[in-house]
Design a protein that fits this description.
Mean pLDDT of chain A: 90
Shape of chain B: globular
Oligomer: heterodimer
Strand content of chain B: under 5%
Distance between the termini of chain B: 57 Å
Order of helices and strands of chain A: HHHHHHHHHHHHHHH
Helix content of chain A: over 70%
Low-confidence stretches of chain B: none
Structural class of chain A: mainly alpha
Low-confidence stretches of chain A: 1-12
CATH topology of chain B: ABC transporter involved in vitamin B12 uptake, BtuC
Number of strands of chain A: 0
Number of helices of chain A: 15
Radius of gyration of chain B: 20 Å
Structural class of chain B: mainly alpha
Chain lengths: ~350, ~300
Amino acid sequence: MSAETGAGALSSRLPGGERLREARDVALRVLIPVFLALVIGGVILLILGKDPLAYYGYVLRRGLLTWSGLQETFTRMAPLLLIASGLIVAFRAGIWNLGGDGQFLLAAVITAALGPVLVGILPTAAVLIACMLASILVGAAWSLIPAILKARYGVNEIITSLMMSFLGTSFANVLIKLLFWDPGTTVPQTRMLPVPDRLPPIPSTTIHSGVIIGVVVVVLVHLMMTRTAFGLKLQVVGANPAAAVHAGLNVGWLTIATFALSAGLIGLAGSVEILGVWGTVRADWNPAFGLLVVPLVFLARFNGYGVIGFTLFFSALMIGGDSAARRVGVPQHFVLVLVGLLLLFLAVVEYLDHLRRKRLTT
Amino acid sequence: MEHLLTQSFLTALLFYSVTAGVPLLLAGLGEQISEKAGVLNIGIEGMMLFGAYTGFLSAYYSGSFGLGFLGGGLGGAVVAAIVMLLCIHFGLNQIVVGIALTIGAEGLTALMYYFQFGREHPNLAAPPVLGIPGLSAIPVIGPGLFNHNAIVYLAVILVGVLAWLFRSTYVGLNLEAAGAKPAALDAAGVSVVKTRSYAVLSTGFLTGIGGAYMANVGAGLFVPFMTGGAGFMGIVLAMLARGKPIWVLLGAALFGASLSMTTALQVAGVNVPTDVVQMLPFAMVMLVLVIFARHSVLPPALGLPYVRGDRG
């Protein structure tokens, strides 16, 4: 993983023409994979007998160009932004936290269980804050075993975090069915958090304020990773663990801290989704956002500001795709295909760019 | 508790352990070949799922289980060919490509299955069974272990074949060199790229058969996302087996037994929430990882593309 940390600082020192070329390169490296993914996705739609232009047109209209769709899109951005900030921390530190789904769901369940209990005791603001803090702790706790195994024995964290994710997904269901099942419901679900006690909407919209939390957190994480000593340490670990040890950094602890922070932020995403949108968690609910955010973070090259733009694009795609499933008859699974293609072309374009640069320098 | 010791429960436990364990065994053996050669095949989950899909289609349209396994193997190999092209020939990031292929296979199989069958889930007929003469007559163990589809015995025989291949042949030596010291293999006049390509294609083929077995024999039908992490478990098996196929077999038996608990308990009429039982295999994987983590060994050049002339 190559975190292009100094890219911004570097380009500001370059002469005008160079800077322009640099900006164009970045734009191409981002736009080409998106374009190719949409084209190949379109070909797949054609093969399946659907009109790709009609599909994309519908998704665009529904996700971005109608007021109600746009509000849904902004609402969807809240959890995605928080998951993305968690992934930025991990990826910049060279750690693959792919256990997002388990961390997200368990935090969501704890929020949904805790919220209704606290509502009578604490004022709304305190309830919200308590739920979010608890969810951060739960998310972080669920990453502890992969973190320790990685820090102590170097066990590949991709596998361990994925396994913990599968475990967490089932565990969330167990918690709902055995501990937090609202006796008043037939389908297993937690007690409903009353609407006045949820995250308040942004005035005169249906968008809950969680999206503001998301934007603020992603910017803070970006600044932390690029402007603070702690962030710099993590980046050194990510770029070259051996060098980090040599420089006297405690790589083990930094690994555990990275994992905890990353998983905590993903846990916060689960909490915000419950406090803002659902108010309860049903058994077997799993939006599986975790892996879907990975390509966005790569597209943005681990840059927090870039992530905001891509999250908007992707949320619109999800919201539009949701209703296209009903209207155009293309199931949501198509979004997964696009995500896979996007990652694939991202890797290809990155490689071609690398080749080109090598040719230029030699 | 007396439920747990009845003959029917023990038979069911053994039988379904084999059914659940065979896909893990094939994936684990496949991943072992890749890892030996220095390729971390994260896309194995995608290969398995795609193999399950193509394997199901082949068996569904041909009516032959043999062709079903072949179709599954080829489907897995097609996904592996993408890894071969992008990661081994061009040296792209193996993890990114692996995740992409897993997500892409999930979406593509679910999408195509939907367009072919809508919300119907057509079933296959019961798979042909080959009882081992003599052994299959033993009570409990016979119907549990020796009354399966022929592919099961082939998978177990493959353990021995691979052990021999790794230990006593040039093929095994080349694989090991490609993972441990690719430059040395190159210097000896053997192509690292070719060695790794064959390794990855075999992984795809074996894992694809595992997926086909899961769909055609295990479930009797294809369900979107049905592999549910079994491919990733194959990676765990390969990680812990330290290059020894026999350990993959033992691990697959252990994880298979945990996976089969759900079915076996249902057969025995014990009422345990399925979610609790579903945690079992993953809890088992984590437990084994925690206990044996310090012993897991991976080749030094794992995950690194080989570029001739680079240091390493």
